[in-house]
Amino acid sequence: MSKFEFPPAIKSRPVYGTLEARTGKHHLMIADAEGAEAILEIATPELMAKSHIIYIPKGADYGDKLRALQPAQYYEGPSYAASVQRIRHVLANAHMGLQIYLTGTEGLMGQAQNEAMQAGFPHTAIQTEHRGSVARRMQCVHCKGITEEVETDPFVCSHCGLNLFVRDHYSRRLAAYQGVCIDAEDPGNVPEPKGIYE
Amino acid sequence: MTIQFNDETFRDDYSFHNSDWAIKRFPFPFHEDSYMYAVNMEQHRGGPEGSVYEKRFDVDEHYVAEMRDRAMVLADDPLRCQSLPHMTLAGWDLLELIMVSKSEDYPDLFELHRDGDQWRWVNKPMGIDDSFTFMDETTLPYGPMEYITRQTQGDFCVLDQREDNLWMDAGIVTTQADWSLDFDIGMNFFEWHAPVPLAHEKGIFVRALKFLLNIQQGAPARRLNWTMTVNPLLDTSPENYHKWGIQKTTLTPENIGSKQHLRVELQTFFRLPRSNALVFPIRCYLCSFQDLMTMPKWGRRLHRVVRDLPVELATYKGFIDNRPMMLDYLSQFDDGLPTSPGVWPDFDTEPPLQK
Q1: How far apart are CA B257 and CA B259, in angstroms?
Q2: Whole-complex ipTM
Q3: Which residues span the domain enclosing A42?
Q4: What pLDDT, on a 0 to 100 scale, did the predictor assign at position B198?
Q5: Which of residues 130-169 of A touch B (CB under 8 A)?
Q6: How many domains are contained in chain B?
Q7: Residue among A135, A74, A92 nearest A110 (CA)
């Protein structure tokens, strides 16, 4: 089961939808891990003939199924960082009417959305669908370091080592949630970490 | 009057202090004996003589020391001042607004000489005398927003207006109540206020936004907000929270009167002419509990407000743990007598403390 119902949250937290095929001459689909399932669900031969899929498997096993859709262009990247130059290139050379579909983890969607925004796409025009891990991409407000794949609250900043609690406050520009020191007023008093949605 | 600028600090030895004049004009934020969020907006077109509301940009005895503190914060963390590329024009608007206002309102402190686009700006308290070309960034040592706000008390958010919303697209933020410009830049009005409890449900932000979108040139508005700060620390930033948070635990019954400060923000809103941006200065005033208690009305009222504040608000404002100790202290200054309506101290008419 790759779908997760997020609890209601504050207004800076992103809300994800369900992908639907839209009318357009070109379609850019960026997905990681279980995000592949969302693409498989909307794929039709007509859509795929105009689609460019950029997929980061992160250990998941959907590559063959996506390739079998016969998209116009297909790329499988070992990581988001390895794919970002290609994403920028596609966005920079896009024509009017490009449809963008992002699906998978929040970190992937957030970062790809940020690239699209910098290329001039309003964030409200980009489709998103969450699939797979609910881990968060966190920015430490103190050292500004990004810690990927955070699954527990609190967690230890992978850069400065502070104990951070996981806020729902989210920055599209950073594609990250905010982590804030949890024991500043009582050093060493750090609650036992538990899953973010537990 | 000529202002005597204090030589004082907002960190380390905390030599910040308010004169009797500054206490008397402190913008006490409670107009009645209780508090709940409200839009509480009013026109910003002057106010009683000598009050913080009188001038467009109030200059007080803390000016020079606050600007010194701002320079230190920016040297440590330049990300406290940011402006997205489309906001430069709004920066020039802001520079003009402040230079014109200050030179008109404080002619003994500031001078602005304009000959076409050749401008000369004299800031006597800070010893600045610069000539530059208006709208030419290369003639200033910083971008226009940063240049002028390094010389103006208060944080500044410069908000772009589009899609029936306001966007935090530029700002300088070094005296904030625990929020990060670097994190919030680029957010819209609802997003950057997202962490505030209760107010969304009460429709406060929808009403406030509607009001702000309609602010016109020459018709600025203002409101007050408040929180609590232990020690007169201006830079209560989330960036440095792991360093200053511990100070909240240093309160004792003996030092609370001098260490605990009521922190009040005078928020003003000006429409900018060329960019149609909205500038949102957030000016911070600090006053220790013991100085506030010299006004009998404020002593009675502050006790009642702090005592009756909903838990969510005391938590959000960061003083829930210290509230019992605050109440022990403040209750000494509340004899149960009624208080007069309004924010003014009414020192001459309120009866002295009856216990």
Answers
A1: 6
A2: 0.92
A3: 26-130
A4: 83
A5: 139, 141-142, 144, 162, 167-169
A6: 1
A7: A135
